[in-house]
Amino acid sequence: MIQRTAASSHVHPIRPYTDADLPAIVELSLLAWEPVFLSFQAIFGPTLYARLHPDWRASQCAGVEGVFRDRERYTTLVAEREQQVVGFLAYEIDAEAARGEIVLLAVHPAHQNAGIGTALNQRALEELQAAGVQIAIVETGGDPSHAAARRTYEKAGYTAMPIVRYFKAL
């Protein structure tokens, strides 16, 4: 499917994930989330950060691979530009509660601010609505490294509910 967004005149093919996409998705996730983990390191300080994220790259790879391999639980989408994976999104549905949750969304840093995240989000919201979902949920950080993510979700019409989560090294 070709997706056009108001944020960009570019065309973004969005399609279901295939197993051949996994290496590109894992690599993209590391590039996209590296600034987030650098931000976490600055926020938490060395002791707490080391306890929370002793090897963020390994846990990031495992987490992303786990989501994309679990096709029963998650629906996964890929955005392409010139036959290259430039973004991805994964969501899950709780049919009993009529809720859907975006669990992963990332855009390659070289392709950010081009409407790709918005297009992925819009496609997922359309699919959720078609599946009978009445509420869509997404969670992201309140720190500066998540500002772009917050803008993407706000553009998609989500309502923010500030939540504070505290951490303490023991």
Low-confidence stretches: 1-9
Q: Please give the alpha-carbon distance between the first and last residues.
A: 50 Å
> How many helical elements?
4
Query: How does the helix and strand content classify structurally?
Result: alpha+beta
- The Cα radius of gyration reads 16 Å
The named CATH superfamily: Gcn5-related N-acetyltransferase (GNAT)
User: How many strands, what sense, and barrel or not for the largest sheet?
Assistant: 6 strands, mixed
Assess the beta-strand content as a share of residues. 25-35%
- As for the CATH topology, it is Aminopeptidase
The level-1 CATH class: Alpha Beta
**Main sheet strand line-up:** 1-2-3-4-5-6
Q: Could you state the order of secondary-structure elements as H and E?
A: EEHHEEEHEH
The shape, in one word, is: globular
| Whole-number total of structural domains | 1
Mean pLDDT: 91
Helix content: 40-55%
